[in-house]
Amino acid sequence: MPGFELIGKEEQEEINDIFDNGGGILFRHSFDNLRNNSYKVKQFEENFKKEIGSDYALAVSSGTAALRVALSVLDLKKDDEVITQSFTFVATVEAIIESGAKPICAEIDTTLNLNPIDLLKKINPKTKAVIAVHMLGTPANLIEIKKICDDNNIALIEDTAWGCGGSINKKYLGTWGRMGAFSFDFAKTITTGEGGMVTFKNKKDFIKASAWHDHGHENNPNFPRWEDTRSGSGFNFRMSELQGAVGIAQLKKLKYIVNMQNKNKDKIWNLISPINHITLRSKPENSFETADALIFLAKDAAMALDCRNELLKFEISTKILPEAMSWHFAKQWEHIPEIHNIKGKNNYSESEEILSRCVSIPIFVNMPSDMPAKIKNAIESVAIKI
Ligand SMILES: *Cc1c(COP(=O)(O)O)cnc(C)c1O
Fold this sequence. Notes:
This protein is an alpha/beta fold. It contains 13 helices and 13 strands. The longest helix is centred in the last third of the chain and has 19 residues, at about 255-270. It binds pyridoxal-5'-phosphate (PLP). Pyridoxal-5'-phosphate binds next to α3 and α4. The site of pyridoxal-5'-phosphate (PLP) has 14 residues, from α3 and α4.
């Protein structure tokens, strides 16, 4: 689950450094003569690129902003369509709506991510981009999804909000598509309180996004900022130096976090896997999860609910599934007419069948030692009655 479990001294020292050595400058640009060469956001971007092996990276103010900034590169028009998956956080769809395009949600498969077969069915001449989400830390079937996007000349963006530190064939998530969008909100693998990062394959996309996220500022080195050059308007999604400083310290903990989460997830699964009527969520071959949650599929929806109720008796809460689909499943978003008024097209029956059987257990870095046994007792007591 996270950065927030491991936040403290190192982050505080990075913040103090802004005041002790960097003149207290909290803006990522300018004030060059006052800051003693202290550029925390820039440093965070450099370190992040190295860590995950991406050519370009731009820090932004949130994960939702990261998605919106990535979409800004594509100059989307009113009738353009962007396909994502039915099981995601509302932010993915909100970013598509804000970009001016129409969001289309495809079914998921048992990875709980974009179903390549349904994706192919939904692609049409209006499709301009696909946002594949690595929900709760398990990689989407990126090899198939990327091939479909390449064959149809469609931009692939990865919503890597939960996927920071995960990989397929040792290549990090967020570096497979044309762009990757990361979140550092307080519930994500690493955190800056609020914050995000966009990664890019192409320099041209990076330059365009950098300007767009900063009111169109090109940060032309030949001019002071107030006389800066511009080619188009934009918005303000800049990250502040305070967030950048925290990001530098958190990033150093990323490997430890995902390794511990995988270890703790395996501990639980090794104990409960012999129980009848449960199967583990599937994942792509040769993939490495961030293991933010352990999700298993129960025999049916009733068993999933029983598991949740039994887990609660042992003071173990579940994460999003089965109880909190309302913020994470397109079928429930009646407050978003942009997706709900597409009549007859989206009933998400395949996704619903899968999601209603899922039980998601949050994984902690500092897992209480009695947690695996409690989980086993809870689920066994349900399975025995079937
Ligand atoms: C958290 C999240 C986001 C948004 O990130 P924020 O930093 O909270 O804006 C986007 N997509 C998914 C799948 C998320 O889980």
